[in-house]
Structure prediction request, 195 residues.
Amino acid sequence: MNYKKKCGAIAATLPALFLTGCISAPQAQEKLAATTLYDINRVHNQILKYKTWKPVNPEPVKLNVLVGAACANAMKAISTPHADKFVRVYVNDVGLAPMLEAKSPQFPAGTIIVKEKLPNKTSNTPEFFTIMVKRETAYDPDNGDWQYLIMEPDMAKLEKPSDVENCQSCHATWAKTSDFVSRIYLSPEQNRKLK
Ligand code: HEC
Prediction:
């Protein structure tokens, strides 16, 4: 059903909706789009463009160094199955300011964070992607309303991790400090700029 027909059909049954929703087409279209905001294909399409987003750490950093840093900060010790791998993190515009500017960030709904796992520091060929999508309020309050996803290097599709509880419980380490987002790849200069 095209937009006009749909509007007509709704209008026939609900005159009030016709008046408020259909008179101004752009508004009505916006409403339709909002209901599909977190549609997996839509999120996937955005993620396919992640290379145009801001890299949070342009220089890939090594995982096991980060785990060491986490311990040095007296956080819960974090083990990683990916010792000797490098990571680079990207965030879309929605989450950019909290990521780079806020000492205690709260990420708005619509934030997407993509983590590349790289075989070495100069590689531009990720071996794997882990992803966090900040969903609408009450999507999953215990886990900060974050949705955890994974993607193979071919980027063909987004998948729900089989061990999503692991993602959630480990990221709960940062629930209070930074809205479940570790940010332990920020450089000392970036950390100093947080307000
Ligand atoms: C054992 C702890 C642990 C588990 C389990 C874990 N993560 Fe993480 N995650 C980290 C750490 C530590 C970082 C910081 C970067 C790094 O070391 O990779 C991180 C970073 C991230 C980031 C970048 C945003 C941030 O928090 O800084 C995303 C996205 C992410 N993880 C997604 C996932 C997903 C999806 C899963 C489950 C498939 C998962 N993580 C499981 C510890 C974990």
